[in-house]
Amino acid sequence: MTLNYRDSRPIYEQIQDGLRKLIVTGALRPDEKLPSVRAMAMELAINPNTIQRAYGELETEGYIYSIPGKGSFVAAVKEPMEIRRRALMAKLGEIIAELRYLCVSDEEIFALVKEGMSK
After folding, report:
1. How many Cβ atoms from other residues are within 10 Å of residue 63's Cβ?
2. Whole-angstrom distance, CA of residue 100 vs CA of residue 109
3. Are residues 1 and 18 in contact, defined by beta-carbon separation less than 8 angstroms?
4. DSSP 64-97
5. Integer Cα distance of 39 and 103 in angstroms
6. Residue 73 and residue 60: Cα distance in Å, rounded?
7. Which is higher by pLDDT, 2 or 92?
8. How far, in Å, CA of 7 to CA of 111, rounded?
9. To bridge 80 with a disulfide, which of 11, 28, 62, 66 should be the other Cys (CB 3.0-4.6 Å)?
């Protein structure tokens, strides 16, 4: 996982998004152990609190679970994917509403969606 220090998003969100993507794509399997907070902090050369925050957010979303004294693991539940799906659909609706407010035509919006789906 790499961090982009020019990205406007906080580092913990970049880590969270990176891990979420690895989980959703199956690169990280259910019940697979994640690196410890310290190990990941050393690997990325950042503060362990940043990793802890990312792990905490992912646990709240249901993507991972932790066992005290053992570490953090990938959750096997499909429900978090549905929660994330709904959140992304709501975000897309907000983006479409803002684009319409900015006088972007439906045709332009459809073209953007079609272009995004072809990637």
Report:
1. 24
2. 9
3. yes
4. EEEETTTEEEE---SHHHHHHHHHHHHHHHHHHH
5. 48
6. 13
7. 92
8. 26
9. 62
> Which residue, 52, 56, 53, 62, is CA-closest to 23?
62
* pLDDT tens figures, 46-84: 999 999 999 999 998 888 999 999 999 999 866 656 767
Place of tokens 């429900």: 79
Are 73 and 32 spatial neighbours (Cβ–Cβ below 8 Å)?
yes
**Scanning the structure block, which residue is given the tokens 């659909």?**
89
Phi/psi for 67 (5° steps) reads: -120, 115
pTM for the full predicted model = 0.68
CB 99 within 8 A of CB 113: no
What pLDDT shows up at residue 37? Answer: 95
Task: Report the distance separating Cα 116 and Cα 111, nearest Å.
Answer: 8
